[in-house]
Amino acid sequence: MEQPTETQKGASKKTRFFDLATIKRVPVAELIGFRVTEAKAGRAVATFEATTKHANPMGTLHGGILCDVADAAMGMAFASTLGEDETFTTVELKINFFRPVWNAKLTAEAQVIQRGRTLGYVECDIRDEDKKLIAKTSSTCLALNGTEGTGR
Q: Using one digit for the tens of pLDDT, what is the confidence trace for 96-105?
């Protein structure tokens, strides 16, 4: 997914230096077993190995797990566009499932498609090791300035 040039439009003029190395711990990533490997300039990549421990009662990968991985990738992509005094929250999340997964190495690639002053739209493709599209997700994120994010 290529990054459109208008991704940063509307973002705070003082863009935060976003570095994954400074993030000491992501509890949900530890719980589920995924890893965000890249997050910069409105783009993020997460990797995940689906196994039987992630299965639903039907034996396939539980859709909620895919949602978590995609939400994390999209959140990191959006977070990389935040200004110095901004935080954010997700206000909407959508996912379409295209094929079942049993055991597979998955990659979630997220891209900020539109970034306004307060709202951003992010998309994420989840693919298997053969580059087959497993799911497509999108989210709307709300940038919060200063103390707006306190207590969230």
A: 999 999 999 9
Closest CA to 71 of 55, 51, 48: 48
113 vs 101: CA distance, rounded Å: 27
What does pTM read for this prediction? 0.84
CA angle 47, 49, 55 (to 5 degrees): 130
Sheet hosting strand 133-145, strand order edge to edge: 34-40, 43-50, 104-115, 119-127, 133-145, 86-97
| Residue ranges of E strands in 28-150 | 34-40, 43-50, 86-97, 104-115, 119-127, 133-145
Residue 25 to residue 27: CA distance in whole angstroms: 6
Cβ distance 81 to 115 under 8 Å?
yes
Q: What are the CA-CA distances from residue 134 to residues 5, 27, 106, 109, 129 (Å)?
A: 27, 25, 9, 12, 10
Do 66 and 125 meet the contact criterion of CB atoms below 8 Å apart? no
Nearest partner of 46 among 114, 141, 134, 152, judged by Cα: 134
Query: Which residues, in sequence order, are CB contacts of 136 under 8 Å at separation 6+?
Result: 95, 96, 98, 123, 124, 125, 126
